[in-house]
């Protein structure tokens, strides 16, 4: 009887081991399949607000620096978007998110504060291997951040999340796997602004609105994506606020609900 019981226990252990092995192989196969899909077909997973394939490619600025871009619906899944950024664009998961928000209009910081802001931002991003996330346009604090990263030859991702309808020169971005020369783009106005060449990647959020009505339509997707990394991937986030208006307050409110540390940079 004891021998029979021992043999039965041994067989049960073998079956459990086989079941666990099969489950592990299944999970590994699904993981490899997902990585392959996003590596080779990443943009095809998304569609624009009309259900057509997303516009995407490279933007080449006057500095000859190229940045990746994709135009996508404001309702896009943040889980899929995370896999796209990491799998197709090859951007490593951040150790920290440095989310910069503030005034879109041009403003001036005092020289000491500007130097402290730039050096502190660059040092924080470099030492932590983080992502810098901004509104992406060539105005206000977004320009300040992008120019600082460009001047310092920063090698971390600088991701601009901007409203497609208020992006000047967005007519140049139509198509898939495009390489766009971003020249002769209208200057900033109430109806739109160009993208800043200090950024490395752009997520352009299409809400269907254009001109001044499109400002702020990117905030929800930006907040959802940042919160996805905070809540689902355990990435800490610091929100850096420099000046700003109602849109900035909405971004800060979303961050406070997360909750995330918020640092105010005054004049």
Automatic annotation (TrEMBL):
InterPro entries with a match to the protein in the record: TRPM, TRPM_SLOG
GO biological process, alphabetically ordered: metal ion transport
Gene3D superfamilies: 3.40.50.450
Molecular-function annotations in GO: monoatomic cation channel activity
Name listed for the protein in its UniProt record: TRPM SLOG domain-containing protein
Pfam families: LSDAT_euk
Taxonomic lineage from the root: Eukaryota, Haptista, Haptophyta, Prymnesiophyceae, Isochrysidales
GO cellular component, one term: plasma membrane
Domain TRPM SLOG: 67-261
